[in-house]
Amino acid sequence: MGLDPITARTLAHLYLNALRFDFRCPTLQRLVEQLAETARQPLDCYTRALYAFALLGQSRPEGLAVMDEVLAEAGQHTKTLHVLLHGLWLGQDLDQGAERLLALSSRPALATGSDPIVLFRVAGALRRLGRYDEGLGAIDRAIDWLPPGDTSVHADLVRERSLLCTARDLHQHRPPTRTSSGVPS
Question: Distance between CA 110 and CA 146 in Å, rounded?
Answer without folding.
Answer: 16
